[in-house]
Amino acid sequence: MQKSERLTWPQIRERYPDQWVVLVEHDWQGNLTIYNTACVLACGSSRAEAYARADPALAAYEGYGCRYTGPIRGVPSHLKRLRLELEP
Fold first, then answer.
1. Does position 88 have pLDDT exceeding 90, yes or no?
2. Within a domain: 2
3. Residue 13 — pLDDT band, cuts 50, 70, 90?
4. Rounded distance, CA 83 to CA 88, Å?
5. Does position 79 have pLDDT exceeding 60, yes or no?
6. Is residue 31 part of a domain?
7. Per-residue pLDDT at 14 exceeds 60
8. Contact, 27 vs 38, CB < 8 A?
């Protein structure tokens, strides 16, 4: 797979629906938690598949991330942990 052009998150979700995407060349917002744009290096139906496709090229990048473009299923782990800490 060849690296995509720079895309916004809505564009990535539209182009790669319900896929795991490996993102490189992030353009971060000031707080470094949300990016404006990124390039898709690889995608797959699972995180492992996306990483396997991206692996040959990952060494060329300082940083990368893997995100799912579909709807979130279940409660995020940090919310589960908070609930457990609040229970007696």
1. no
2. no
3. very high
4. 10
5. no
6. yes
7. yes
8. yes
Cα 20 to Cα 48: distance, rounded to the nearest angstrom: 9
- What contacts 17, CB < 8 A, 6 or more positions away? 69, 70
In which element (H, E) is residue 20 found? strand 20-28
Residue 64's nearest CA partner among 49, 45, 42, 31 is: 42
**Count of the separate structural domains present in the chain:** 1
For the record, the structure tokens of 88 come out as 């007696």
pLDDT per residue over 45-76, tens digit each? 999 999 999 998 988 988 898 999 998 776 55
Structural domain containing residue 17: 9-86
Three-class DSSP category at 3 = coil
Mean pLDDT of 30-36: 71
Per the domain annotation, does 73 fall within a domain?
yes
Other C-beta atoms lying within 10 Å of the C-beta of residue 43:
21
Task: Please check whether residue 66 is in contact with residue 78, taking contact to mean a CB–CB distance below 8 angstroms.
Answer: no
Asked whether residue 80 is domain-assigned, the answer is yes
